[in-house]
Every structure is written in C-alpha cells, then in structure tokens.
Design brief:
Elements lengths: L7 H17 L4 H14 L5 H7 L2 H17 L4 H12 L4 H16 L4 H19 L4 H15 L7 H10 L3 H7 L1 H18 L8 H8 L10 H19 L1 H4 L3 H17 L4 H13 L3 H19 L2 H12 L4 H18 L2 H19 L6 H14 L8 H12 L6 H27 L1
Length: about 425
Amino acid sequence: MAIGLPPIYLALPILVITYALVIVDRFDRSILALLGGGAMVLSGVLTQNQAVEGIDFNTIGLLTGMMILVAISRRSGVFEYLAIRAVQLARASPGGLLVSLALVTALLSAFLDNVTTVMLIAPITISICRRLEVPPFPFLITEVQASNFGGTATLIGDPPNILIGTAANLSFNDFLVHLAPCVVVVMLVQVSVMHLVQGRTLAASAQARQAVMAIRASSSIVDLRLLRHSILVFSLALVGFSTQRITGVAPGTIALIAAAALMLLENLVHPRDLQFEKISATYGEIDWITIFFIIGLFIVVRGVEVTGALAWVAHKITLATADNLGLTVSVVLWSSAILSAIIDNIPFVAAMIPVLHAMAPQFGGEAAILPLWVALSLGACFGGNGTLIGASANLTVSGIAQRAGIPFGFGLYTRKALPLTLLAVVIAQLYLWLRYL
C-alpha cells in the first residue's frame, strides 16, 4: 500500500498527469518527467532502489555516447561537405536536389540522432535554395520525412529504436535485417512522390545553378585531422555494434568508449587549458533535456509496471484480438502510428515496451513477438512524421524555417505530411504481412 492506497490508484494518475503536461508543452518535458518519477518514489509506489533499477543504462549510455561523437565530428565540417556535394551531384537541379538531399538526410539519420541531422542539413538547404531562388519548404518537409524514415532503419538512428532494442535484446544487425528493407521501400516511394508532386514544378535559372556549382565543397572541411579521427572512431564503433552478439559488449558501453576515445584524440595536440574548454563545449552540446526526459520516463513507466496495470492492458489487447498475432501486429502498428503523430513517440514507446513484454506468454515467449517489436518501431517512427508535434526533428526544422522567415506552421506541415505518413504506414502493414504473418 502506498500512503494508505493501493499503488495502482496513485501510479496511473501520476502517469496520466505527466503525459498530459508533456503533451500540453507548457513546461520543459525533462522537468515534468523527473517530477513524475519523483512522485512515484515520494508516494511510495516505488522504492528508491526500484526507481534506479528502472533506468536502463544501455539506453542512456548509447544516446549520450552518440551525441558526443556527433558533437565532435561536426567540428570537422564533414556534414556541410556532404550536403554541398549532394547538391552538386544533382547538378544544382532543383528536382535532383530534392532527391539527393532527402537521401543524404536519410543516410545520416540512420547513424546520427534525427534532430542533429536536420540541424546540420536544414540551414544549408535554406542557403542553397535562396541561391537557386526556389522555395525552401518542399525541400525542408522532404528532409523532415527522410530523417524520421532513415532513423527507423538502425538501432542508433532514433531514440525509440534505442529503447526497443534494449528492451527486446535486438542488436544493430537485427535492426538492419528486420527494419532497413521496409525503410528502403518507403524512402523510394516517398522521394518519388515528392519529386512528382513538387520536384518537377521547381526551376532555377542557369546563372543561379552555375553559382551553386562553383562552391568549393572541400572548403567546408575545416579540420582534416579531426575528420580522419572521426571516421576511424565511427567505423570502429559500427564494428562494435555489429559484433555485439559475439563480444557481449552492450551498445551503450561501445558508444561511451568510442566517445571517450574521440574526445582524447581531439585533445591530444592541445594544451591543458584548451582541452578543458573543448571538453566542456562537447558536454555542453549533449541534449541533456532528452537524456533526463528519458530517465524520468523510465521511472514513471516502471511505477505503473510494478502495479500490474500494463500487464492488464496487454491481456485485454490479446483478448480483443483473440490471441491472433497478425491482428495484434496491425493494432500495434496503427495505434503506434496514430498516437505518435499526436504525442512525442519517445514516451509512447516507453509505455508500450512493458505492454509487449506482458503479451509474450500468450504468443509463446519473447522470440515469438519479434513482429510486434518491428511493428512498434515502424509505427512509432513513421507516425512521428504525421504532424508537426509528432517528432522532435519536425519541431526543430519548423523553428529553423520560421527564424529564416519561411512559413512552416502546424496546419501547412500536416496537410502536406499526413498523406505521405499514411502511405508509409500502409507500406509497413504490407511489409509486416508479407514477411512475418
């Protein structure tokens, strides 16, 4: 009993109030999540030890390590170089530019955090579009979609996947095998549709295209030594992710070791005072809001989980679907997509993970519910594209665009993005049916 009441009567209101306040977006989400987690402890729903046990180190370590790797690598100028080269490979054609930037964004998002990717690509896109004298909005919305689709393909591409991979014991290779094929198909369809609808209507003068082609991409690389070190460390980290089943070293540990190694390599040639300055700057670029948001959510969800409420929800879902795996997969996919378009997909996935675990016995164990994990990832990551508030990358690009005087509001974005999102979820449904059911 928690303060005289059954724990479930306290845990559920704490969960609902926390999520409601996050959705309203009046206060910082990390503060709300931490207060929600604190309420679980102070009310007696969880002991302090249970709260700490609910925080998954692998997820936090993987997120933090990758953020550090990106923060250091970006100083070399490599991401600006890739964006400019993508434009020039398309011969500065607006239609080709739409396709090439989408593909670059998707590829980067498979290995970097989506928000980081769009923060790097969007300002460059706006600058190039202005040089070409074409409207930036079609390019920006395509990049938002591509960042969320591309991030779905790998374990490290999107925070929901990191949560799912840790909970379901899915490796980096597992995500490539089970999710990347669907992402490739969706990206091809999305880019084709955007090119047909928008790309063919865009045109730039020959003079403007020549000016863009004259940009020296190599001038973007401002630290060649750091670039070499970044490529080396990233490559070794990917090898570590790919061989984790053999080595037994968790992705979070690999990411933190790689982050520490790259920080060391960056600072070897600098005096002690400058080392302190650079390391402080690196830690300052970590998205601590997301880190503490997830820590708080882990505790809140753990509080509800120990009451048995999530197991009850799982039981009701399996009863409603008559223990039919195919129907349950569809329910998970579409509910994930719809709800992730309305609320941030991170808290939704955090709440769904213990529900899926509780379903495992009805379907024959953890190995049997792999299609459910795939459906959860596809639904949550694809659904985040549906509205402006569905994913952090959407809001990030909106802010960058509006600061540059480019209309990028909720209504405009949703009218253009929602049909593409629904198409992507339909493709995901077909993929799940053909491959697993």
